[in-house]
Amino acid sequence: MPLPEISAPLAVSLGAIPGALSRYYLGLFLTRKLGSHFPFGTFAVNLSGSLLMGIVATAAIEHAIPAHLQLSIATGFLGSYTTFSTYALDTVNLWQSNKSAALFYSLGSIGFGLLGLGLGVMLVRRL
Amino acid sequence: MRAAVAISLGAIAGALSRYFVAIALQTWLGSGFPFGTLFVNLSGAFAMGWFSSLSIAVRSPEVRLLIATGFLGSYTTFSTYELDAANLLALRQWQAAALYWLGSAILGVVALLGGRLLAGKKSPD
Hints:
The complex is a heterodimer. By secondary structure, chain A is mainly alpha-helical.
């Protein structure tokens, strides 16, 4: 079934809303489950979002996903689901209470995020 | 419900700003380096440092959800940042990849502290 043609801004917006809401509600859920001494929410969305980005970006190249669907999923959903500004804020806030946790969070986010993205790429290439 | 509406309104504006800033910077500076993502992430971290220090961000949960969680959360992106770094690595541009990957993380913190200073809040330690 061909998707209806929608404008690029609409495609981005339609992905951005569920992306930001998923980030918010997952953050609330993880804070309730695990506490707020570590930014589990941002950590989880950034790592899972990077893994999904590896999958989507590779699938887009190898399986020709329509351009507007790519905009909705990659630019809209995953772009909004993951966040860099909160990651920087978490790092600075954590530094004030626990310096080693802040270093782990800061470097762990970018390190595991890159590994997760690579894993996503490999998963799609294997299929 | 009010929380979901505030976040959604901020998210649409944030994601569209990111999208159009990326197009503008790519047109202006080319696509050899991810200037768009770098710019949104650093300017967004700066804005987050500034906004989170304002008293309105502390007093009003709805303004905080609209601006911080919705707008700035969606304006900046972590998944595209990692994808950009992986693409530079795939092109064997080791120096650019390392500079972009580590530089974004370090400058993000510097930008956030700069935003805090602008709001008149002392930087930690």
